[in-house]
Amino acid sequence: xxxxxxxxxxxxxxxxxxxxxxxxxxxxxxxxxxxxxxxxxxxxxxxxxxxxxxxx
Length: 56
Ligand code: FES
Hints:
By secondary structure, the protein is mainly alpha-helical. It has a single domain (about 1-55), classed as BFD-like [2Fe-2S]-binding domain (Arc Repressor Mutant, subunit A, Orthogonal Bundle). Helices cover about 55% and strands about 10% of the residues. The chain is built from 3 helices and 2 strands. A two-stranded antiparallel sheet has the order 1-2. A hairpin with a 4-residue loop joins strand 1 (about 1-5) and strand 2. Helix 1 (about 10-20) packs across helix 3. The protein starts with a strand and ends with a helix. The mean pLDDT is about 95. The structure holds FE2/S2 (inorganic) cluster. FE2/S2 (inorganic) cluster binds near residues 37 and 40.
């Protein structure tokens, strides 16, 4: 599922980034470019990062 339409980032890409060591929102943003344009994906990205961290 696409989370960030501006950059074409999916939830799996965000999860993979967290699993590979991007353990906060800022790092995920820096690595993937998510939330770098309109910002509408911010809330969902945050949710996915937190959920993935809870599971690790
Ligand atoms: Fe992610 Fe616009 S949807 S920056």
